User: Fold this.
Amino acid sequence: MSTGTLLAIIIPIVVVIALAAVAVSLLMRRRHLRERFGPEYERTVEGSDSRLAAERELRERERRHDSLELKALPPVSRDRYTREWTSVQEEFVDRPEDAVHDADRLVTSLMHERGYPTEGFDQQMKDLSVEHSSTLEHYRAAHEVEALSTRKQATTEQLRGAMVHYRALFDELLSDGGGRAQPARS
Assistant:
C-alpha cells in the first residue's frame, strides 16, 4: 500500500476519533453541569441565547464560587442563628410582614458570615446556585413575596409561604449544605 493510500485511510479515522472525543467531552461537561445545578441548569438555558452560552455562564459561576472563602459556622454562631430564627418565627404571629423582612435579613446575614458576597439578589442567586441549587427556588419565591410585602401587597398566606421558603435555605446554610466550607476557627 502506498503512503498516500495509508494517509487517506488514517487521516479520516483520526478526525473521526478526535470528533468523537470532543463530543464525549461536551456531553460529560453538560452532564456535570446538570447534576451540579439541578433545575437551575434548565432555568439558565431557557434564559440564555444558547445552550453553550448558558453552560459558559454556569462554568463561570463555578469559577467564581471556587474563589470564595466559604467557611463553616462555629457552634456558637450556629446556636445564635437558631435562636434568632426562633425569634423571627415567633414574631410572625403578631407581625407577619416584619417577620418576613427579618427572615430575609437573617438569611442574608448567615450568607455573609458563611463567606458569600451579599451585594445584590441576582448575584446571591448565582453564587448560591453552585452548592445550594436544591433550595434556590425556595429563596427566589421567598424574595418575591418579600418584595410584595414591601409594597403591602402580600397576603398572610403568601407571607407564611415565604417563611417556609426562607427556612429551607436557612437550614441548608446553617448545616453548611454539604458544601466545601472550611472549618471555622474559634
About this structure: The longest helix spans residues 3-37.
